[in-house]
# Entry
Amino acid sequence: MAIPFVGEDYAWFSEGFASYMQYQIMAQNGMLTLPIEQAYANKIGPQLKWFQSDSNAAFIATHLMKKRQFPAAYWGAAWFFVLADTQLRNKHQLTLTQVISRYQQAGRRTDDSIQALLSSLDTLISDTLFNDLLIQFEQQPAHTLYPVDWSEPSQKAD
# Structure
């Protein structure tokens, strides 16, 4: 409920957000027994193989959901938010959870499309980071966005 559902075509986005945020919430509440980076590595790492493709990440995640490969779709889509958080930290000294909190405080949870949601988030940071990342996920070959294995996640984070 932190962000609005943005439609069936972007269910991968919504589910990736939920998957990403579950560890953020657990970490905030002291419920993780390992470092958050390791928690993500344990979930996203095994799904990277699905995204070593010339197809775009949005297509792959949507296809995986249609094939009922939910862990692969959800955790593969969570990579969007790992990248967003990394870029926010590097460019704006903000975390994704801080931006989402600002979004909620601004009362914007009524955005009814992916474009409206990402434009609202971009407005909050005075950047096009979120829209640019979606364009990458919809247009670039997935293998250009995802590491080959978790031992090299920072390679493609910028």
